[in-house]
Amino acid sequence: MHVPAAAGRKEIPLPKELTELKEKLTLACRVIATESLADGPLGHISYLLPSGQEVLIKPTEVGFEEMTEKDMVRVTLDGVKKEGHYTVPGEAPLHLEVYRTRPQVRSIVHLHPPYTTILSTQSKAFVPLCQEGVLFLHGVPRFDDTAEVITTPEMGQATTQCLGDKRALLMTNHGLLAVGESVEEACLTALYLEKAIKLQVLAEPGGSLRLIPLPVMQRMYQRAYQPGWAEKRWPYYARKAQAAFPLL
Question: Which residues contact 39 (CB under 8 A, 6 or more apart)?
């Protein structure tokens, strides 16, 4: 059963102008490109507008590093395009169904980064082995229903159900889905998952892994991932991205 789009949504301070939100998403696209998370033009980042009824989303036709605010597409939660000269991404239902179901989620990232995609082709589970991995103390579920792109509301609902209340989802033979209460949180959640999985993929051939005891992980999580953690760390990634790909 779907929660009505605006039901239970917490009002979060947001830029007043739509152009400012588009600029923020454009910068986030450059962060994704700078951190080697992008797979050409494939993948998306989206943001739920304050109304709770419309979403800004990156189109498939443009690469992350070349996005401008004019390229963003605005679409309703029913998938109707309201603004933009590009088409609504075919995988928009992957985003829209999460927004319908998770009231606190404001931003979603879907990507195909290399190490996450490698792990998604294997039967191994994700194991937190480092500081970044501790962010996922509560687990990373795996969507095994299909390796196809998620193009229908029904497929989006199945993916959302698998995600549950977690921060991220591993999509078998496909990639990842990461969510957050802000653009910064969604982006850095995706980045940290890829970094943590990269360490796991590179470490496993060397022998048995040294696991972090659960009580230690819990303490690490409490110190590192209090509300606002992503916003505090974001300026570094923003400066790095702006230097690599200046906003047009």
Answer: 111, 112, 113, 175
Distance from C-alpha of 72 to C-alpha of 150, rounded to nearest angstrom: 20
Q: What is the C-alpha to C-alpha distance for residues 36 and 19, in angstroms, rounded to an integer?
A: 26
Architecture of domain 18-238: 3-Layer(aba) Sandwich (3.40)
pLDDT tens for the 248 residues of the chain, in order: 333 444 444 444 444 678 899 999 999 999 999 999 999 999 999 999 998 999 999 999 999 999 999 999 999 999 999 999 999 999 999 999 999 999 899 999 999 999 999 999 999 999 999 999 999 999 999 999 999 999 999 999 999 999 999 999 999 999 999 999 999 999 999 999 999 999 999 999 988 999 999 999 999 999 999 999 999 999 999 999 999 998 65
* Residues in a beta bridge with 54: 76
- Residues with Cβ within 8 Å of residue 227, at least 6 apart in sequence: none
- The domain spans of the chain are 18-238
